[in-house]
Each structure stands twice: as structure tokens, then as C-alpha cells.
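pinned: reference chain
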Amino acid sequence: MSKNVSRRFRLVIAVVFFAWSGGECALAEQKGSASGLPIPRYVSLKSDRVNLREGPSKDHRTTWVFQRAGLPVEITGEFEIWRKVRDSEGAEGWVLHSLLSGRRTVLVAPWKKGVNSILFNKASNKAAPVAKLQPNVIASVRGCDGTWCRITGEGFDGYISQSDLWGVYPNEKIE
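pinned: its C-alpha cells
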């Protein structure tokens, strides 16, 4: 009996040590089964009419129709030519991969209803403001350093705190 307990104990210790020491491996980036690209990742919609479906085929019911080209969405899964996506409000469903673009876009603070975000001419709160952006403005990402992002859009170009954007991960760096 003591040999069985000892073996079990060693096995439990080995599993715990493996899980602990392999923590970095456990947190390693997942890759999509179809694309080989990181999951999750942000992309944008190519078209101003994209059906969001319950499942990964045209046989599944359309639950929503996105009507904003350039809207950022997060890919959370893949199945053949279909991508499971989530929008800024948490709605999830399946979209044909051909309707998605790798172009990085963001939404300006969609959670700040009625509160404008300041765009600066440099990556600093002390820099000169160049624009006030309303919530849900779509912008193209030119780069992020993990704290600040340079974004552009119709009539604006400047820097905004990365924490005021949906479509980039915290501390993510984009060149």
C-alpha cells in the first residue's frame, strides 16, 4: 500500500511541477487550426454587409448583420473557411474568412457613452490635443508601443492611450 501511495504522490508532484514549470508553455499562444495564425487575434470587416451566423456554414441561421466596413472584431476560433468572431459588445458568431481583413482597426472607447476621448499630437497626456473623438469612432492603427497607439481616420491623425481602444490587447505592440 505504501508503494502505491508513494507512486501516486510522486505522480501528483510530477504533474504539479510540470504544470508549474510549464506555465509559460500553458500560456503560449494558440494557433488557428485552419490558418495557423494566433487565436485570439483582432481583424476587421472587409464589407459593409457581413452576416454573423450561429454556426460555421451557410446552413446556419444569420443572427446579426454587421453594416460597418472596417469594424474591428476578435477571432476566437476557426473551422475550415469559417472564423468565430466576437464584437465589442460581446456578440459572437461565425463569419466567412473571405469577409475579414488583417488590417488592424479599433473602436474608440465604445464603453464611454457620451464621453469624448482626446487625441494628442505626441504619445503623452501633456502633448497638444489635436481632436476629440466620440465613442465608437473607427480608426486605422498605425502603431502601438504597449501604452499609446497612433491612429488615423477621416480628418484625424494622432496618439491615444491604448486603454481607450477596443481592437488592441493590453500592452500589445504593433509596428
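why pinned: The helical segments are 2-21, 23-26. The radius of gyration is 21 Å.
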